[in-house]
Amino acid sequence: MQLPLEVDRESSLNLQTQVFEQIRGMILAGQLRSGQRLPGSRHLCQQLQVSRITITLALARLADEGYIETARSVGTFVSREIPEQALHALQTDLEHKKPTGTPAHDRSRLPKIRSHTLVNELAHRIAIDFWVGRPDPRSFPLRTWTRLTNKRLLSAGSALTEYRDPTGVPELRQAIADHLRPARGIIAEPEQIIITGGCQEALNLVCRMLMSPGTHAIVESPGYAGASYLFESFGANLHHIEVDEKGLEVAQLPDVTNAVAYVTPSHQYPMGCTLPLDRRLELLAWAVKTDSYIVEDDYDSDFRYVGSPLAALKALDSANRVFYVGTFSKCLGAGLRLGYVVVPPELMPAARRYKALTNNGQPWLEQAVLADFMNTGGYARHLRKIRQHYLGKRDALLQALGSAFGDGTTIGAEAGMHMVWRTPDHLPAAPEIITRALNCGVGVYDLSPRSAVIAPTRPDVERYLIFGYSSLSEKQIATGIERLADAVQNKTRAEDAHESSVCRA
Ligand SMILES: Cc1ncc(COP(=O)(O)O)c(C=O)c1O
C-alpha cells in the first residue's frame, strides 16, 4: 500500500515534521483506521526520497504520542486507541474549518425520489419468514457453479483484463435466445439481447431510451413498486390501471400516445393472475394504435404448476412493440445480479449505446459461468428440480392455510414463488396480523411498499396477505402457519370473549 504523502523541501517545516503531521492527519481523519498496517520505513524512504533517519524519527514520534504501535518483526500499525486529546484537537480543528455561506450544491434541490425495498429489515427478528421472491439458498447449484467458475478462470486469458462488448458475453446471449424459444415461445436473435444487472437495470435502460418528464407510464395496480418508483423518478405521468382476477384491465388503458406500459402478464405481481390471450392481443393492439411500447417483466415465469405456461406476450409481438425483461434472480439467486432484456431490433443500436454509457457491461465471470451452465444442460436440470421442490412447498402452504383457517381464498398459486391470501372477514386487517405474527417470530406481508407493492386504487388492500414460500422447508411452512393461526385466532377469540362480556355487563 502506498500512502498519499508528499514532502515540500521549500517548506519551513522540517521533513520529519511534515511526515509526522501528514500520517497523524490521516489517522485522525479516519483515512487510516485503527489496526491498519503502515508501509515499512524503507518503503516510505523510497517513496518520499528522504533519508531513513527522517522516517525513523517521524514514526518514533507517532509511536511516542500513541498514534501507532510497532510489533517487533511483524510491522507497524495504527493504534487501537487514539489518544483522546488528539481526537479533541481534531474536532476543534474541524469546527474552525466548517464552511460558511451557501454550500456549492444545495441538497434540498435534489429531486425527491422514492424507492422500493427488497431487503427485509426485520429478518433478524423472524424465525420463519414468508418474505416474497427468494429462491431457496439450499437449492443453489454450488458444486457445479464452483467447477465451472474454476474452469473459466483457468482459461480466462484476456477476458478479465480487457473491455468486452457492453451488451454481454456472446455465449450467454446465445444461450438465452436458445432457452427463450422453447420455454417462452420468443424468437429472438442473440444480437437483440442485452445482459443487465437484473430486471431493475433492464427497466432503467428502457427508461433512459423512452422516458422523459411527462411521458405517460402505465402500471398495474396493485403492481411492482420497483417499476412505478423508477418511472416516477424519470418524471413520468403515471396511470395506475386496476388488476382484476384475470390481470390488467386492458379496457381501461388511457387514450394517450407514445406511452410505456409495464406489465407482468405471466404471473402478475403481486396478485399472481395470468393475463388471458384476448387481453394480451388487446394490449398489443393498443400499443400499435397509440404508438406506445410495452415492457413485459417475466420475473418468475419458470415456475408453473398447473397446465402449460402461456407463451410470453413477446411471442405475439409481430409489430415489435415489446421489450421482454427476464431475470436470474428468482431461478438462481438475486445476489448474481444477472438479467436481460430483449430489445425491439430497431432500438438495439440506441440500447447498446445506453448500456455502454451506464457501465460498459456486466462482470464477465458470472456471465461466462452462467452460459456454460445453460449450454451444458445444468440450467434445465436445475429448473426441473426446483420446480418440483417449489410445488411441494406451495402444496404445503395451501394445505396449512386450509387446515388452520378453513375459509379465505388463495390467489395466484398456479405459478411463481408466492401466493396471495384474501383473509377471512372475521380476522383483523393485514397490518394487525403482521404485528401479531411478528411477535411469534413469523414474517408475513401485506400489499404495501414493504413488499415492493403499491396499490393506490385498491380499497380492500388490507384484506390481503402475501406469502413467499420458495425459501422455506415444508416443515417450516406448516409450523409458520400454525403459529400464525395461534397468534391471530387465539387473540381474536379472547377479544370476542372480552367484547361479549362487556356487552353482557
Ligand atoms: C415483479 C418483479 N420484477 C423484478 C424483480 C427484481 O428483479 P431483479 O432482481 O432482477 O432486479 C422483482 C423482485 O422481487 C419483482 O417482484
TrEMBL record:
Keyword Transcription regulation present in the record's keywords: the answer is yes
Keywords of this protein's UniProt record, alphabetized? Aminotransferase, DNA-binding, Pyridoxal phosphate, Transcription, Transcription regulation, Transferase
Q: Name one GO molecular function term.
A: pyridoxal phosphate binding
InterPro entries linked to this entry: Aminotransferase_I/II_large, HTH_trans_reg/aminotransferase, PyrdxlP-dep_Trfase, PyrdxlP-dep_Trfase_major, Tscrpt_reg_HTH_GntR, WH-like_DNA-bd_sf, WH_DNA-bd_sf
Say if the entry is tagged with keyword Transcription.
yes
A Pfam match is Aminotran_1_2
What region holds the HTH gntR-type domain? 13-81
**SUPFAM superfamilies the record matches:** PLP-dependent transferases (SSF53383), Winged helix' DNA-binding domain (SSF46785)
Q: Which PANTHER family match?
A: HTH-TYPE TRANSCRIPTIONAL REGULATORY PROTEIN GABR (PTHR46577:SF1)
Family membership: In the C-terminal section; belongs to the class-I pyridoxal-phosphate-dependent aminotransferase family.
Name of the featured protein: Transcriptional regulator, GntR family with aminotransferase domain protein
Species: Hyphomicrobium denitrificans (strain ATCC 51888 / DSM 1869 / NCIMB 11706 / TK 0415)
